[in-house]
Description:
The protein is of the alpha/beta class.
Amino acid sequence: MHLTDRFRKLIPPALKQRVKPLLRQEWVLPKGLEDPKRFVGTDGVSGQLQLELLKREGCTRDSTVLEIGCGNLHAGILLIQYLEKSRYVGVDPNKWLRRKTLKNLWASELIREKQARFLSVDNFDASKLGTRFDFVLSHSVLSHCAHWQLEQYLRNAGKVLAPGGHILASICLAEGNAYGSSGTPDKEDSMDETWQYPGISWFKLATVISTAGRCGLTVVHKPEYTEFYVKTRPLECHDWLVFSWMR
Length: 247
């Protein structure tokens, strides 16, 4: 029995309405702690959509998932809830985002029970954990990367990718797309030298393909994932890419 279920049975009926937000099967930031949500610019609905995309790529409850750029866990909490114990790792340099989220008692309990792990690093590298992952998820990470960080991301994500695994990542392609992204005026890489946030960095698909190739990865562009995503979140018109090991 889930710890939350046992806790629910101990609460007198008169008090259940007062603690109901802590017991429902979703997570909500406590009042006054909306700053993480504003910082990351996503919400729980975004997390649900990301989980659905992972499922479309074949993610199951016993898959191992590394989320690079987990932020305040809009996708992370749903993934932790969905996956079996010890199957989720989140990486993000902004530890304060997770600390704010952990003020939600249900989320904090879920993380403890499912033995989720986290790293606060800014180079996308989770190799020190010694775990191979079936899936690496990153939403709105490559869309802020400096030009040189694209290769850093792919090399470090690739280091921990299991054979047959996939990296699912959103990006802003310089060419734009049919779902709301105009791309760059000249349709060329933005060539940013530093991390761009809250600004946007742009990469040509050809740049991504050649960079991935140097890292031993292939790339599949998934415009259908953008179409699916913008039906619910029209402002999140990122392009979606799937990276896998070359055969």
